[in-house]
Amino acid sequence: MKIRFRKIDWALIAILFLLLISGVVAIYSASTTRIGQELVTENYYLKQFIWIIISLVLLVFLFQIPSAIIDFLIVPVYLFSLLLLLAVLFLPEVKGAHRWIQLGFLNIQPSEIAKIATILLLAKLLAKPHLTEKQILFRSFPVTLIPVILILMEPDLSTSLVFFVIMFAILAASDLPNFYLLLMFSPLISMITSFNLVLFLICLLLIIILLYKSRLSTITISFVAVINVFIFIITPVLWGQLRPYQQNRILTFIDPLRDPFGAGYQIIQSKIAIGSGRVLGKGFLAGTQKNLKFLPEHHTDFIFSVLGEEFGFLGCLIILILFFLLLYRLSRCVNKLKVSENRFAAVGILSYLSFQIFVNIGMNAGIVPATGIPLPFISYGGSNLIINVLAIGLILKALHERSIFE
Amino acid sequence: MTDQSSKSNILIYTIISLFLILAVSLFNLQIIQGENYQQIAEKNFVRMKKIPSIRGEIYDRNYRPIAINRPSFNLYLSLSKVRDRDELFNFLMTRFGFSHFALEDLFYQNRFRLYQEILLATDIEYQDMIGVSELLSHFPSLSFKTESIRQYLYPNHFTGHVGLINENEYQQLQNQGYNINSFLGKTGLEKYYEDRLRGKNGYEIIQVDATGRNLDFFRHNLHQSPRHGCDLILSIDNDLQYHIEDIFPHQTNGAIVVMEVKTGGILAYVSRPEFDQNIFVNKISPEVWDDLLQDPDKPMLDRIIHGTYPPGSVYKTVIASLGLEKELIDKNTRLAECTGGLHVGNRFFKCWYDKGHGRLSLLDAVKYSCDVYFYDLSLKLSLDDMQIYTENNFLTVKTGVDLIGERKGFFPTQAWYGENYGQYTGIIGPKVNLSIGQGELLVTPLQICAYFNALANEGRWVQPHFLVKQIDQSGSYFNEYDEGQLPLTREHLELIQTALFKAVNESYGTGVAASISYPKIYGKTGSAENHMGELTHAWFAGYAVGEHPEISFVVFLENAGHGGSMAAPLAAQIVRFYAQNRLDVK
Question: ipTM of the predicted structure?
């Protein structure tokens, strides 16, 4: 397909570029250490630079492919990604989990591919006209749950959460009445509040009122209430069934400070790093906390702490603004996409990007517990970067085509 | 349409609120609390300290030490605190004998580990440490720590040794709690039982500021005690081990193993020549390493499981058993006449006794170790039956002893000859040779010992092993081992046992040099021709029976001559020592 250069949102491309460059700068700093007067840098920044170039080439390539072919590839790619998720479980552990497929120069994380494939498949399935509510639900749940289960087995709790966020966002964008989302949420709420009867009753009451307002039949509402009471009762029982190490894994996920020698220590050190950066930061390459051995992930999951330490609040704010502009600009455009499939896909992509950015920066700042989610466009990582850039590319491509046919 | 745009507005509002939350929390962290965090960062108030676990020690059956930990002064380097690199290099070169190249290499290897302390040297003499300590203020990058270091109380081939982790191991193991200064088992029991010996490091987090105020980052659990490694109790008996070290002929290479018949526990394990494992615990100098590697006697080779040799006549009982099991012979069957050898086709296969034994029955054939009897028997056997039967006797298969890198030996098959010597090679010749434990057949001394142990143990084969039990903070655990059965009926086994008895205890038996009055020794000699030298390997394998079969043994001496004259007397000395000291073997 011919690219109409004037129809491309160059401001958006520029923002993306600035983010990618900040990433290289941060990685350079994160992997630089000082011996006496000498500075030594590991070559992660060079590798990241090469990945950026590769992902941009792929981006241009993506624009060339007719949409029909992409549409045709969605199901095969989805199935292939499930196969990879299955395969990775049988490969040797890397860093204590079965998350990566090692190909020498590149560590592929199959869940990244599954993420984008799931988004596209959900969008495709839910965009069919005249779907009943049942059909919408019956299509979206299996498509999301199969990869989620495989990812939970890796184990990778945080990435499986991302999939739920995606499904939720796409369902919200679809024709599904909103009370269904409430229905989906209600068991989760009952589960979380199962440790406190009063809290549970308040939440249950709220749910019932909201459902009542959605003009649901009394029978349906009582059914929902019964199910939630059942979940409230069964949760502590199920919890007791888990082995102590499984309970610990979940509790530590919710509250990393429970694990002061692992994740908790990292988050404390990350907070110290960011906090000590103050307004203007300690200056490029002048950070000290990054050098503590506490952060083996400082060029990946904890890259933001390096930015925060060396460039201070001002630097953090600039990164936040860049991210915000990127997401804001894209979400303003979502409306213009008349093809539901493209619109749903765009919502899915934007929701996962927002979620990952929020969770990662939040984790670095110590306000979000979950760990193990890299910062899009900034963190070091080849497959991760390519998927994120291509995801943006998919939205840009949809917008570009819309502008051509207008 | 309005529905759609209101939905996309929800998306936008969500994004706006998420970013506001992040901005506010960063504002709080960096601007409101920034000064506080800056102090914490500068003073390094929150840091994690490792509490190292103590490696388990290794003891003999009577809890006498074999491998222990002792205190050692170790020198560490923090690259981040290096001020003047050249000055430091000079200091380390003159005071500690480092080479410039070694230091360059060390700095390069660890260039990304600025904030970890790197182990430079272990086991520094107290005097040296005192002498250097005064200068340390000038070199803030150097520090001493008192830690423990491994010590092996006598040279041996079973404990193996620990050594400093290398770059490869570190890359593989860093997620399992190893760091760049970790010592880990490199060979032998130290490696085989690494997981049990090492324990688990503990940690402590210090989170107090200069005024002693607890910073309260963590609510609880600031101290995680280390879990110390298990102590291992071996079946080895230090007294017997020392005794065998004493009587082992000087300037001779070889091996002696003694096993406890009932349990299969190894009582003594000597492979000569030996080397001092303690040199590997400290950083080994390249010259010492080269000397060990270049030594033609291969002191680092554990001849008991890493060496494979032709067994010679000690193998004959296997062929005899096969003949009995196949019903080709019985107690009274006499085979071809020994006239100092046997004509097979157009070749003449010699017996070791060139005057000839005449026509012998099984018992005498074993007693005199007549080759012709077995030559003739082999003509009636198929090569592949011999190969399978040998494996069923747990020879040319790994015994599963709890050491690293055991070899399995070799027995050729028909197919193997086809591949290596062409399709139409006659296999009669090789078969005749194999029947007396020569030719391509290779076994380890430990396999032979385990085989004779099984002969003593009513045909019950027990996996040879060292570890009897392990002791840790929560109690002690006994280890269990595999067992098997020799493919031999009780009647035939007793016949073989009688033959072994006659070989030692009747006049003109080949093993008569091993004869003592009590306990009785049963055994078989072997003198295996080999390509390593002019003289044959001397073998003597067997067991001692007091009230019941008690110990089994193998004596193997490389290129030392005849088994009957060289190896058998040693067995007698070992059994006599054992009987006099009554090691409480049950």
Answer: 0.91
